[in-house]
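just leaving the lab so this will be short. below you get a single protein, a line of residues and a line of whole numbers that encode the local backbone shape. id like you to explain what the token line says about the fold, in plain words if possible. thanks a lot i owe you, the record is right below:

…
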Amino acid sequence: MNAVSHIIARHGTTTTAIEKLGNLMTKTFDGARPIGIHLEGPFINAARRGTHKAANVIAPDAELFGKWIRASGHSLRLVTIAPELEGTERIIGMARNSGITVAMGHSNATLEEANTAAGRGVCYAVHTFNAMRGFSHRDPGIVGEVLSDDRVFAEIIADGVHVDPAVVRLFGRAKGKARVLLVTDAVSATDMPDGRYVLGTDTVNVTNGVCRDSEGRLAGSTLTQEIALKNFLEWTDWAFEEALLGLTLNPARALKLERKGALEPGADADIAILDTRFRVMKTFVGGRMVFDRS
């Protein structure tokens, strides 16, 4: 984890949500600082599981979820669910009572089901368009809810592979400056050459920077944050300071991180310095320099 912390700091990331339970939250790292755990599943729709193993997808279980909250030392920060599944209402309530942000994703929800979830406090959508019920003009589904509801913060993987650049542009226009979240969905092959890598218990192949499993499905990405920013600016008409919100203030607000996302008195001094070619030159975490390209 320390190696991951250092590598992502090289690309301007100062804070990250980890995806494995354990005692990592109490450790000190040389790079980006973990602020909590993202539990992406297992209460997701098997039909939209992506590369998640079918055996690991289970029905919502409030008792089990409560055990996980306690086992994590109350460090769960984000949990992704498919809101159309029976039993998710209780999961949502438990999460919110514990200060955990609830996201919709890996879901086959209709517009109505997703809207009901938003009304219950599901105010976040993971990797919009990917592993979701498709959008159409007569059946907008979960994507229609995510794009049209101002209560919902929405992630987008701006690598040009997970989502076409034209759709990224439409997404930006629909969500507006205050709700876009630029994410990478990056895996262990990030910052590495093309080849075969281990992802969990599986082997994935990276060709031209695109990561796929043995069945040809996208298996995360090798995108980094500064390239996501660069791509988003190229594909939209947003100003730099507007697009930057998707990497700073917006995710901080989505995850209720009061000391993150802005440079102001009392906030953490988390700073990434980029040159005009979008290369990260220096990264500071809590005022301490953790990366220096020179």
